[in-house]
Design a protein that fits this description.
Elements: H1 3-10, E1 18-20, E2 27-34, E3 43-51, E4 54-59, E5 71-76, E6 85-87, H2 90-100, E7 103-108, H3 133-143, E8 145-153, E9 156-163, H4 166-175, H5 184-193, E10 197-203, H6 205-211, E11 219-224, E12 229-230, E13 243-251, E14 256-258, E15 262-265, E16 270-271, H7 280-294, E17 299-307, H8 321-326, E18 341-349, E19 358-362, E20 369-370, E21 372-377, H9 386-410, H10 414-419
Helix pairs in contact: 4-5
């Protein structure tokens, strides 16, 4: 398993039909598709349930390979005891993803002649053979590494380490089967200076086989700390390409935002051509890449912010109290059974554009936002009225505007987009387009 993949995913412990009203025109439609994390091969996910200084962090394990080679190292702000660590439900990450993913919605124009009221880290190697206990302790002491705690949770054997200097920690990790890339020691040093501890986990093969699961389950860590941050730098030691990180922050207060980089909303509420329905994944990836480039590749994108007691439109039902508990939400009471606000942040990062760890803050802003993209189907029935004829004449202009919007959002070729547009009876190709495409 690559060290940087371990780091991206896990080195993060700092830390239906509906109606809507766009631009005063009311019309009804329904949710069609969502842009979930399956679009990104390298997307890592983490859930942060936080209230004040108290945090429960859920880390998704997307390791692919022989589980005997799996290992992870996670900086944590305090020495964790067994009761502060547990194995999570892998379905919770999927539920949050489905609930908060940017979505495509579909609407159908009414009959314009009808009368109506409203307008329209490198591969980990197997651990070295066990040494005599006294010898191992002496070696650890000489390296400045102390095993603060040792326990097992589910299919994981876990150590909590402290260290005096990064070279000693790197040597300890290498001796115990963790292959470290060049430059890791330098990046470990800042965490050691901050007196951070290190959560180290490997798979207990017997426990994993007994569990009956085919994949490693998420790990959850509970701790108290004033630091609200994600240490992503260590995850970029040997990363050669940009990496996608999806962070779901659950809070009783409101939106969370990144403080040391700009937090920017993804482009939203754009009307785009109907043919995008069959290629929404390609559309969203192209649109996100375009926005990412335009923002100089150094912002955090807000994809969703909403009170989890409702949704509009709903791409998935809101999580129930039991599911929220599994996601780490610890502040719910019988009198406040659904006081949870979700912020979904999407960060695509590289070493040169993100030289600092991500710093977060909670806010009291409870304004709703979602990445939403709109398809409007033209009315195809008879339009034997003046309003209907006017509507038909306006369609060509509308289709062209949708095409221009799509080209601007994605960088796709406008002429290739125009070839896929519907043709209306009144639509004519402007005489200049043959020579000025």
């Amino acid at each position: 398993m690559k060290l940087f993949r371990i780091s991206i995913t896990l080195l993060l412990a700092f830390v239906g039909f509906i109606c809507f009203t766009p631009d005063a025109e009311a019309f009804c439609g329904f949710y069609v598709a969502k842009a979930d994390t399956k679009l990104y091969n390298q997307a890592s996910q983490v859930i942060i349930a936080r209230d004040g200084s108290r945090t429960i962090l859920t880390m998704a394990n997307d390791y692919q390979g022989d589980v005997k080679d799996f290992a992870l190292v996670v900086p944590v702000p305090v020495v964790l005891q067994k009761e502060q660590v547990r194995v999570g439900d892998p379905k919770i990450m999927e539920r949050l993803d489905a609930f908060s993913a940017p979505r495509l919605v579909e609407y159908f124009d009414p009959n314009p002649c009808a009368v109506y009221n409203n307008r329209q880290f490198e591969d980990a190697v197997p651990a070295a053979p066990p040494r005599p206990l006294a010898s191992a302790r002496e070696r650890d002491r000489a390296l400045g590494v102390t095993v603060e705690s040792r326990f097992s949770v589910g299919e994981y054997d876990i150590l909590i380490l402290s260290a005096r200097e990064s070279n000693g920690l790197q040597i300890w990790l290498q001796r115990n089967g963790y292959k470290m890339p060049a430059g890791a020691s330098q990046l470990l040093q800042p965490y050691i200076r901050q007196n951070m501890k290190f959560f180290v986990a490997k798979v207990n093969l017997a426990a994993f086989q007994k569990s009956g699961y085919q994949y490693l389950r998420p790990l959850q860590i509970a701790y108290e700390s004033s630091k609200f941050m994600l240490p992503i730098r260590l995850g970029m030691v040997n990363a050669n390409t940009a990496q996608d990180l999806i962070v779901y922050i659950l809070s009783p207060k409101g939106q969370a935002e990144v403080t040391n980089y700009r937090t920017v909303k993804v482009p939203s509420d754009a009307e785009i051509p109907v043919f995008v329905k069959n290629q929404f994944g390609d559309f969203y990836k192209a649109m996100f890449q375009t926005a990412y480039t335009q923002e100089d590749k150094k912002v955090a994108f807000l994809e969703y912010a909403w009170d989890m007691s409702n949704c509009d439109p709903c791409s998935a039902e809101p999580l129930n109290p039991e599911e929220l508990r599994k996601a780490g939400v610890f502040w719910l009471t019988p009198s406040q059974p659904s006081n949870v606000f979700i912020t979904r942040l999407h960060v695509r990062y590289t070493r040169d554009k993100f030289p600092e760890d991500l710093m977060f803050q909670e806010t009291s802003n409870r304004q709703n936002f979602q990445g939403r993209y709109i398809l409007r189907h033209a009315f195809e029935g008879e339009t034997n009225c003046s309003a209907g004829q006017q509507y038909k004449r306006a369609l060509a202009t509308r289709f062209e505007q949708e095409a221009q919007t799509l080209a601007k959002l994605t960088g796709w070729n406008i002429n290739e987009i125009r070839k896929k547009l519907p043709v209306t009876q009144t639509q004519q190709t402007p005489f200049w387009r043959n020579i000025w495409p």
